[in-house]
Amino acid sequence: MSLSTHVLDAISGRPAAGITVTLNDAVGVAVITAATDGDGRVAKLGDALPAGIYRLHFDTGSYFAGLDIPSFYPEIVVAFEITDAGGNYHVPVLLSPYAYSTYRGS
Known about the structure:
Oligomer: single chain
Shape: globular
């Protein structure tokens, strides 16, 4: 099973580097914390995760504060379910100070 994420900054049209991302299990226990790289990616989150519900927490408030840009969403939490422990899961986020979107990528 692989889990990755990618964050794009819709204001600049560039990857959102340096965003802290935490993967939490269904009861809220942190599994791993990482930061997006220069390409806005975290290539590997967790290792051999069992099927279940998980949450990705993105610290968007710190990201925008570092750019001196006010924002409405200080954090984004994306809940999702792993149904195939052998599958590949990618959770992209398109980010701006007043909106965000996500979907299951490939």
